[in-house]
Amino acid sequence: MTEMRTLKVALLGCGNVGAQVARILIEDADALAARTGARLQLSGIAVRNVNADREVELPQELFTTDAETLVKDADLVIELMGGIEPARTLILSALRNGACVVTGNKALLAQDGPTLYEEADKAGVQLSYEAAVAGAIPILRPIRDSLSGDRITRVLGIVNGTTNFILDQMDTTGAQFADALAEAQRLGYAEADPTADVEGHDAAAKAAILASLSFHTRFGLENVHCEGITSVTASDIAAAKDAGFVIKLLAIAEKLVDEEGREGVSVRVHPTLLPREHPLAAVHGAFNAVFIEAENAGELMFYGQGAGGTPTASAVLGDLVSAARRLVLGGPGRTETTTGHVPALPIDAATTSYYIGLDVADQPGVLAKIAQLFAEHGVSIEIMRQTIHRDAESNVESAELRIVTHRASEAALAATVEAVKGLDVINSVTSVLRVEGV
Amino acid sequence: MTEMRTLKVALLGCGNVGAQVARILIEDADALAARTGARLQLSGIAVRNVNADREVELPQELFTTDAETLVKDADLVIELMGGIEPARTLILSALRNGACVVTGNKALLAQDGPTLYEEADKAGVQLSYEAAVAGAIPILRPIRDSLSGDRITRVLGIVNGTTNFILDQMDTTGAQFADALAEAQRLGYAEADPTADVEGHDAAAKAAILASLSFHTRFGLENVHCEGITSVTASDIAAAKDAGFVIKLLAIAEKLVDEEGREGVSVRVHPTLLPREHPLAAVHGAFNAVFIEAENAGELMFYGQGAGGTPTASAVLGDLVSAARRLVLGGPGRTETTTGHVPALPIDAATTSYYIGLDVADQPGVLAKIAQLFAEHGVSIEIMRQTIHRDAESNVESAELRIVTHRASEAALAATVEAVKGLDVINSVTSVLRVEGV
Q: Which of A121, A172, A296 is the best residue to mutate to test the B interface, defined by the most B CB atoms within 10 Å of its own CB?
């Protein structure tokens, strides 16, 4: 048997995911070597504090605070520090040295991806980041490789487990947002400061990455319209449920033609109604899933664990073995294609169906007035449903009107809602939510 | 702009999938070139009859009956003829010439895969076959690449659309197998001779391919235990439904330890009960899905269209673009790893839970007798449920007993069922079905 080559692996960061990656690199060394054709030797772990408590017991001599030196001597660099700096500088330095880089840093990729991709291109090495989107789920490689002969038309993703857990709790138990958030925090599904999750920022970074790969064009955070779930109420959820829908926070990237006939991609994150029979509606708890529509393949869905140290480590190691095999085989790494050049469309150009809840006066002719107003704004109504409530004590009647529209532009819808508010028969607009999958 | 290289693509076969592949290669030539970095020029289509009617209008001059000559001059060969010969000889000849090969030929791969893989290894070229399993769903590449740093422990696949359609019809409408099959044939989901589908042979070939990739070991058809769905009755389905299960034909590959402590892989295809809340239970109609359990990633599911010309063409073209990009970049192709060396276990060594339906005498002590007998055979009962029916006219009572066991070996279960049949309180064993996902 010929002597196996050894590849030096530098690990930057030793949190939740990093510690598991280190553990597996050590424990599964033989199996990984067999699959790679080279031994993957963990040469060191760069951390801020070498004496910090870790979840996993790891050899103390591996730890160092000198990330720069560690990177210089590595064939493969795994960056799991998070944040922009020093991660960005270290990755660029690794790529320039000809090392392949594996990262899970979605914020950095969404903010400054193009700089990194270009550096990898120049060096002819691989920059992989499967762990950055939807944790353990193999989604970026299938989009990049398996669907490279197809045209993706739309991506709908549940890519944030915290918000999916919260919305699922609200849907199952009828809880208000604040209570469901508290429960998520108690169970460790939400951080003490949940802003990045509940405001949709985490999902927005993932949406930018998904859009870039799906449409062969580089989209950044500035191209993503982002709304979180903090304003979703228990009564929104109940009304949606009653109408046969479930509310999910979706990362959406879809090819659209705007009113001027210009083709572009709308990238956005917002709470969305989905029919209960839609495959994404069955994604419960902290699970993630990405639903893809492609011209030839049709509908595809990828489902699995979107977070957690061990599941995310699986994605990191898949990238690592793939990059290492390429080093063993020889020949340059494969990088992304960005030949699409489709423009990002502003949110106003996006079209979806809408669900609108209205508290209206209970008098004849109200439905006709509202329908007329929608028609004037070019928004076509698919379903209109009125429910009359009578208060047992006061004997006062109130009417609730629920409308689901056909696809309309954000701009047309916004104008319609403004006009509806001005009608004297309207007491209040109780909810406006986008609908997908109908 | 530098001149783009042209790669010659030979297409062998022009059926359902082949015709769509040819159409897309011609219609999407520019987009494919942009993504590949080379023009993919369809140099010819080998068919038996150049004048046959085709679903898609294609340039007549592309057609030839001389597959050998076409293959000799190609950089990339797409084999979609099906069957063993001449497909096998043509693929081997293409690989020896240094061409990359894309095929969807599951029968050939399951029967003679090792010969093909070795030839590709020797030539340092790519042999890809994503289309061979689960049509449009990217499943082989995620297993091979994305999960290459993980250990897969179990694969459960709905990989045959015909049988899934039939079982779904039976579940939804209460139809008998024969009627559901007739409906599937009427709608084009089943062939006039449905044997390969309903007897499980198609699923068995896919099970062998999935097992080989998942466990880094070459498994052939001879390692797959195969049972079809022809003996599944409407009353099996009804009883399963009543107990909260759905019946699916699953292709299963899982790592097990047999009674002698020997680790191995059980590869099998059989009708299987799944709890209705299992993600695979929601896979309806002719759709396919593959559910994977891995040590680190946890549970993953891949869902999409498993057949049809255009969806399957998407998988073929994904492989083609990937192989062509590698030719453009230089460096050898990537081949499978077969370093696992785990033995295939015979069906007797497989362990699952079982569902057993019994028609029993309605007298005291029956349950105790049966429970005693199961215990003696080392099969542990999880659920035991008795239903008494009284015939309104005759006033005769009969009792139905349904048992779900804990995991037990096939051998232990078979012995138990034999023994149960000998009990005087048993009128008949109405069904024995395996259960997964509990």
A: A296
Nearest to A332 among B35, B298, B330 (CB): B330
Is position A174 within any domain? yes
| pLDDT of A431 above 90 | no
- Same domain? B152 vs B299: yes
Residues A290 and A356 in one domain: no
- Return d(Cα B20, Cα B12) in angstroms, integer: 13
Residues B195 and B297 in one domain: yes
From the candidates B8, B106, B206, B255, give the one annotated as an active-site residue.
B206
**B296 and A305 in contact by Cβ < 8 A?**
no
CB contact under 8 A, B331 and A326: yes
ipTM of the complex: 0.88
**A146 & A275 share domain:** yes
**pLDDT at residue A32 greater than cutoff 60:** yes
Distance CA A246, CA A277 (A): 9
Which CATH number characterizes residue A286's domain?
A: 3.30.360.10
d(CA A168, CA A163): 8
Domain count for chain B, please give it.
3
Contact by Cβ (8 Å): B254, B154: yes
Question: Closest Cα to residue A9, out of A21, A20, A1?
Answer: A21
Q: pLDDT by residue (tens digit) across A80-134? A: 999 999 999 999 999 999 999 999 999 999 888 889 999 998 998 999 999 999 9
- Predicted structure pTM score: 0.90
* Residues in chain B within 8 Å Cβ distance of A298: 136, 304-305, 308, 310-311
Q: Residue A365 maps to which CATH number?
A: 3.30.70.260
Residue of A nearest to B332 (CA): A329
- B206 catalytic, yes or no? yes
Q: In this structure, are A275 and A322 located in the same domain?
A: no
Q: Region B201-209: what's the mean pLDDT?
A: 96
Classify residue A199: in a domain, yes or no: yes
Nearest to B130 among A146, A315, A316 (CB): A146
Q: Which of A150, A158, A288, A338 to mutate to test the interface with B (most CBs of B within 10 A)?
A: A150
Distance in angstroms (rounded) separating the CA atoms of residues A2 and B339: 15
What backbone phi and psi angles, to 5 degrees, belong to B20?
A: -70, -40
Among A9, A32, A146, A290, which would you mutate to test the B interface (most chain B Cβ atoms within 10 Å of its Cβ)? A146
Give the distance, in angstroms, between the CA of residue A346 and the centroid of all CA atoms in the same chain: 19
Range of the domain at B30: 5-133+310-329
- Distance separating alpha carbons of residues A214 and A251, to the nearest angstrom: 13
**Cα B163 to Cα B181: distance, rounded to the nearest angstrom:** 9
Contact A300 B304 (CB under 8 A): yes
pLDDT digits (tens, 9 = 90+) for B275-319: 998 999 999 999 999 999 999 999 999 999 998 999 999 999 999
Residue B343 lies in a domain: no
Per CB-CB distance under 8 Å, the chain A contacts of B318 are 145-150
Domain presence at residue A341: no
